Amino acid sequence: MEISILNQSLKPADIPLERLASNKHLSDTQKVTELARQFEAVLLRQILGEAHKKVFASTMNPNSMAGGVYQDMITNQLADQISHSGSFGLARALETQLQHELKTETPSVDGN
After folding, report:
1. 15 CB contacts (<8 Å, ≥6 apart)?
2. Which end of the chain, C or N, has fewer beta carbons within 10 A?
3. pLDDT tens digits, one per residue of 62-108
4. Measured CA distances, 101 to 21, 29, 82 (Å)
Protein backbone atom coordinates (compact mmCIF):
# COMPACT_ATOMS: atom_id res chain seq x y z
CA MET A 1 0.00 0.00 0.00
CA GLU A 2 1.45 3.34 -1.03
CA ILE A 3 0.71 6.45 1.00
CA SER A 4 1.14 9.73 -0.80
CA ILE A 5 2.75 12.53 1.14
CA LEU A 6 0.82 15.75 0.98
CA ASN A 7 2.95 18.79 0.38
CA GLN A 8 1.55 21.09 3.03
CA SER A 9 2.74 24.64 3.22
CA LEU A 10 5.07 25.01 6.15
CA LYS A 11 4.51 28.01 8.37
CA PRO A 12 7.53 29.34 10.26
CA ALA A 13 5.37 29.70 13.40
CA ASP A 14 4.79 25.93 13.40
CA ILE A 15 8.50 25.15 13.71
CA PRO A 16 10.01 24.85 17.19
CA LEU A 17 12.70 27.41 17.91
CA GLU A 18 15.42 24.78 18.30
CA ARG A 19 14.75 23.49 14.76
CA LEU A 20 14.28 26.83 13.06
CA ALA A 21 17.92 27.48 12.08
CA SER A 22 18.43 24.05 10.53
CA ASN A 23 15.21 24.09 8.49
CA LYS A 24 16.03 23.98 4.78
CA HIS A 25 12.51 24.93 3.61
CA LEU A 26 12.69 28.48 4.97
CA SER A 27 14.72 31.41 3.72
CA ASP A 28 17.08 33.26 6.03
CA THR A 29 14.64 36.19 6.06
CA GLN A 30 11.79 33.94 7.22
CA LYS A 31 14.02 32.42 9.89
CA VAL A 32 15.05 35.82 11.23
CA THR A 33 11.45 37.05 11.25
CA GLU A 34 10.23 34.02 13.18
CA LEU A 35 13.19 34.10 15.54
CA ALA A 36 12.44 37.72 16.43
CA ARG A 37 8.74 36.94 16.94
CA GLN A 38 9.43 33.93 19.16
CA PHE A 39 11.95 35.90 21.21
CA GLU A 40 9.36 38.62 21.72
CA ALA A 41 6.81 35.98 22.79
CA VAL A 42 9.23 34.54 25.37
CA LEU A 43 9.90 38.00 26.78
CA LEU A 44 6.17 38.75 26.88
CA ARG A 45 5.53 35.49 28.75
CA GLN A 46 7.97 36.58 31.43
CA ILE A 47 6.51 40.08 31.66
CA LEU A 48 2.92 38.82 31.79
CA GLY A 49 3.83 36.09 34.27
CA GLU A 50 5.30 38.66 36.62
CA ALA A 51 2.29 40.92 36.15
CA HIS A 52 -0.07 38.10 37.16
CA LYS A 53 1.76 37.30 40.38
CA LYS A 54 -0.21 38.11 43.47
CA VAL A 55 1.04 40.88 45.69
CA PHE A 56 -0.99 39.81 48.71
CA ALA A 57 -2.29 36.38 49.65
CA SER A 58 -6.06 36.22 49.76
CA THR A 59 -8.69 33.69 50.74
CA MET A 60 -10.88 35.05 47.93
CA ASN A 61 -8.50 33.73 45.28
CA PRO A 62 -6.85 30.60 46.68
CA ASN A 63 -3.83 29.03 45.00
CA SER A 64 -4.49 25.75 43.29
CA MET A 65 -2.58 23.57 40.88
CA ALA A 66 -5.37 23.75 38.29
CA GLY A 67 -5.56 27.52 38.64
CA GLY A 68 -1.81 27.85 38.12
CA VAL A 69 -1.87 25.67 35.00
CA TYR A 70 -4.85 27.60 33.64
CA GLN A 71 -3.11 30.92 34.34
CA ASP A 72 0.06 29.70 32.55
CA MET A 73 -2.02 28.68 29.54
CA ILE A 74 -3.66 32.11 29.42
CA THR A 75 -0.29 33.84 29.75
CA ASN A 76 1.23 31.74 26.94
CA GLN A 77 -1.70 32.34 24.60
CA LEU A 78 -1.78 36.06 25.35
CA ALA A 79 1.97 36.39 24.74
CA ASP A 80 1.69 34.48 21.44
CA GLN A 81 -1.26 36.59 20.28
CA ILE A 82 0.50 39.85 21.13
CA SER A 83 3.66 38.75 19.33
CA HIS A 84 1.66 37.60 16.26
CA SER A 85 -0.19 40.92 16.13
CA GLY A 86 3.05 42.90 16.06
CA SER A 87 1.61 45.52 18.40
CA PHE A 88 4.41 45.28 20.97
CA GLY A 89 7.06 46.21 18.40
CA LEU A 90 10.11 44.51 19.87
CA ALA A 91 10.10 41.76 17.24
CA ARG A 92 10.07 44.32 14.41
CA ALA A 93 13.02 46.22 15.90
CA LEU A 94 14.96 43.02 16.52
CA GLU A 95 14.16 41.71 13.05
CA THR A 96 15.36 44.95 11.44
CA GLN A 97 18.65 44.74 13.30
CA LEU A 98 19.15 41.05 12.54
CA GLN A 99 18.27 41.54 8.84
CA HIS A 100 20.86 44.32 8.70
CA GLU A 101 23.45 41.98 10.25
CA LEU A 102 22.47 39.23 7.81
CA LYS A 103 22.93 41.54 4.81
CA THR A 104 26.28 42.92 5.96
CA GLU A 105 27.66 39.44 6.67
CA THR A 106 30.00 38.54 3.84
CA PRO A 107 31.90 35.29 3.49
CA SER A 108 35.64 35.68 3.60
CA VAL A 109 37.65 35.00 0.48
CA ASP A 110 40.07 32.56 2.12
CA GLY A 111 37.26 30.48 3.69
CA ASN A 112 37.98 31.42 7.34
Report:
1. 23, 26, 34
2. N
3. 666 677 788 888 899 999 999 999 888 999 999 999 888 888 875 65
4. 16, 11, 25
3-state secondary structure of 14: helix
Mean pLDDT of 41-48: 93
Cβ atoms of 94 and 40 within 8 Å: the answer is yes
For the chain, give every domain's residue range. 26-54+63-103
Query: What is the spatial distance between Cα 78 and Cα 2, in angstroms, rounded to a whole number?
Result: 42
CA dihedral 22→23→26→29, nearest 10 degrees, is -20
pLDDT for 29: 86
* Cα–Cα distance, 23 to 3 (Å, whole number): 24
